[in-house]
Design brief:
This protein is α+β, with helices and mostly antiparallel strands and 59 residues long. Helix content is 37%, strand content 36%.
Amino acid sequence: MDGPIPLDSYESTVTVGPALDGPGALIVWNATLRAAPEVVAAVEGLYDAGLGRVGELFG
């Protein structure tokens, strides 16, 4: 797949389950990819921002 982010061999899973310490949910993102360090940081930033927003909306 071609896209605007230069990375290779990207595989990712997002798992949602019950929170470990009360009500809510635990969201875990695991990913493997090959890319320059600044691209890895950008992808991490995208997920951090997205998951942070989920927390704001539903937390």
